[in-house]
Design a protein that fits this description.
Layout lengths: L3 H13 L6 E5 L3 H14 L7 E4 H6 L5 E2 L2 H18 L7 H20 L4 H17 L5 H9 L11 H26 L2 E2 L1 H9 L13 E5 L6 H12 L3 E4 L4 H4 L8 H9 L19 E7 L4 H12 L9 E5 L5 H7 L5 E8 L4 H16 L6 E3 H9 L7 H13 L4 E3 L23 H19 L4 H21 L7 H12 L3 E4 L7 E5 L10 E5 L18 H6 L5 H13 L1 H4 L2 E7 L12 H9 L3 E6 L19 H13 L3 E2 L1 H9 L1 H9 L14 H16 L9 E2 L1 H5 L4 H13 L11 H24 E11 L4 E8 L2 E8 L2 E9 L4 E9 L6 E2 L2 H4 L7 H17 L5 E6 L3 H4 L4 E2 L7 H22 L36
Parallel strand pairs: 1-2, 1-5, 3-4, 5-6, 7-15, 7-16, 8-13, 8-14, 9-13, 14-15, 17-21, 23-25, 24-26
Antiparallel strand pairs: 9-12, 10-11, 18-19, 19-22, 20-21, 22-23
Helix pairs in contact: 1-2, 4-5, 4-8, 5-9, 6-8, 9-10, 15-20, 18-19, 26-27, 26-33, 28-30, 28-31, 30-31, 33-35
Pfam families: PDDEXK_1 (PF12705)
Organism: Sphingobacterium alimentarium
Protein name: PD-(D/E)XK nuclease superfamily protein
Amino acid sequence: MNSFLALVAQDIKQRFGSNLSDIAIVFNNKRPITYLKKHLADTYGHAIWSPQFYTIQEFFALSSDAEQVSPLTQFFYLYELHNELLAQEGHKPETLEEFYPIAEIILSDFSQLDYDLVNIDHIYMELYDTSKIDIEFQHLTKEQQDFIKQFWQSFSISGHTGIQERFLKLWKRLPVLYRLFKQKLAAHNQTNFPTIYRQLANGELSTAFTAPFKQILFVGFNALNNAEAKLFKQWQDEGKALFYFDADAYYLEDTQQEAGLFIRRNIFQTGLQNALGDVPNIIGNRSDAIHLYASTGKVSQTKLLHDVLIKNNILCSCKSHAILLADESLLVPLLQSLPDTKVNITTGFPLTQSPIFGILDLWMKVHEQISHLRKKKIPFQDVETFLNNPLTKTSSQEKTELQTFIAQKQLFDIDIQDIHIRTSVLPHFFRPLASSKDVIPTLAHILQNVLESLAQDTQIKQIDANLLIETQKVLNQLQLGFDKIPQLSILFQIGLIRKAIAPINSAIEGDPLDGIQIMGLLESRCLNFDNVYILGVNEGILPKISSAATFLPNTLRRAYGLPILENQDALSAYLFYRHLQYSTGIHLFYNSIVDESSTGEESRFIRQLEFESNFNFLKQQQQQPILFPPKEEELIVPKTGKVWDYMRAKYIDGQAKISATALTTYLQSPLQFFFKHVAEIKEPPRISQEFEMNLLGTVIHNVMEEILKPYKGLEDFTPTSVLLDKIPEIDGLILAEIAEQYSLDCKEINDLSSLQRIMHKIAREYLKMYLEYDASNFQSFRIIELENDQDYVISLPIQINGQVEHVNIYGIIDRVDQVVTDLGEIKTRIVDYKTGADAVKFTSMDKVFAANTENKALVQTLFYAFVFEQKTGIRNLEPNLYVARKMREEGTLFYGSRGALMEGDFLAQQKEEFVGFLISTLEEIFNPDIPFKHNPDAHIYESDPYTLFYRNAIKEEEESE
């Protein structure tokens, strides 16, 4: 079956012959022009005098020689005029920030009123009256309010709120503002399309521009505004115009079908005649298939489309194909999912999804943050984003240096004075603005630098060049407006810039007659394709459930014949239904997943077709494949070759020391011991937005050392009451320690970040609890050793390959003290502070002295006690663990689930057992026949950077007895 434009071409030949030079053909958009030219060439088969082609706006623009004014210039005109009116009324002028939110709505309403030839004074007077009634009589029922509106002239009751009064005054002011705005345009010999439409329809502009044309053909028009309807009917009556309507009897003749609303109005109300005569009933007579695909997610539609295109052998097809985006946000995922084939894109690639916008948006975000702060700091994520953006071209060395600096100092917020970028093409990216007038010049400089950088590397892509040029144009227009306003805040300028550049896009042009055509539904007007693939056919998207912002309520819009939401539905229905007239392959895709942005339902247009038409819907539900990762072998590191040679050279010949932490690391995961202590693969520097317990522990250890240091080595016992006197000093000591750890220059707690203040508060409570516990449980104390990680090293003989070898172990002694209990008993203790999830309770010693030990803290404390006793000769040390969250209820002495306390004879026995366990574990570490492998029963923290190496660990099956 011939397409709509092919029918138009045939009719043109029959009517006008070969000389079309004095014929004007007008479309709603540019896209169909190329297609009609092709159909004319095919229809005539020889050279002809070509008609002249226009879009409707280009055609109407022939009537005026005034300059088309940009939307931004219109906005600044409106702002200037509005403040002049306020001054005449005796009111203070509004700032640009105050006026901007309503300016766009005012301009949009003015445009719509022009297009539909609405009397400005009448509609705003009625808006004023109805609004005043609504305000005055909010307590009345709707029926009562309607009655009072009939007699409004007799009523006037005061009591409006400030904001209501402001809008009432605005409604009265808008007709005056409208006329001043039009005068302003005329004074500068400028105009806009809404003004041209109204002036043409009202006879204020001459229609003589149509004289050179024998006939004007309006092709494919659907929803006409009142100005178009009036002019079209006038030209038809003059014998000047012909109209080609693309319609189908299925929805045109059925008044219940919303898709035919506008064409019915054009033909039966306006009286326009269809040059193609009676429309056929194509849709009603079709019974072939429509393929409906339910995808498992929004983006999944594009992945599913890829498979459908391959299945339909699109690469070898001689038929025409079009992908129509009901949801235009799917453009980028679509481009990433298409098979390698020719494409032509009409919708345009949006600036907001390009790396260029990423740079501009980041700059605006950074300067929004620092423009109003006393301390110029930004989140570390913004620096990371800058370093990782390929357009900044920061050298890998400088990038690593800055990332390491941030991670080492755990800088959640970075002072911009500490950000030194030398190698980037944007070295001054984080420099504060000297003045609010520098916003646009700085952004323009960034654009220029990016453009020059792209041009140096390779030939700049056309799409990038277009985006950069269009963005520069918008910035220039904004600068012209900003120059007329004395003082604008940086925040407002950035907000307006972001809004102004968001709509920018660049067409990705190809051959409109070859390959896959990609466009929105609106761009597909007049066009027909053998196969159409429509993405985003979801309820809420097709049709949309929202309309543009307006001050004109729906009741007024309906009364004055202005577009309402139902009109938007009718247009969407028409744009969808017309593809059912000619396309033989119809493929519809929708997101079947219910989430915050999707109902999970197909459009009601599909439901209507299922119920009313004879189409056969073939439904397919996308199956989410269950992906099983490829089976990989467990990572096991044998102690052979270089591994064994290195271990021997490091620990036996080189006498490197093994710590308690290294021992418990091996117990939990021998493979992690290998990474950390043999291969020496260090954890990468990183900064965490979560609370760091390790750093909290460092702060607590160092502050406790500072508090107890004066008492170390004293011969006499000190009353524990002195510890209570230290509590008031805690805040200052913690503040100084946090400042040291984070390399801060701070004098008070308010200088800390939110996480640092949390750390300060927790550390204060922990330290206070430690001091209060000692003061309440003991009479006096002596400090024997304190925070010593240097002096406690011993050489331990173990069996390696049948020979006695020696390895060094060492202990970090947090605190060794003697305390006098309330009963007068003297106890010698070794104390370890813990801030994590450690506990003094254990189930049984068999589970402690075992691989994947159930109580790391007990193993480590016995390790420290053993090393200290061997080194000093002091015996009978009791292991104590200070866990602030539990010490009041459970004490500090380790105890078993059956009540056994780690003291006296039981402690002595466990110390002997520990030595055997320690030696056997060390011998296992240095046993060449036992490889390093992960214990799959071990608990691994999410933040463990070695997790990737554990994922294939296999649990060994227990031997059956």
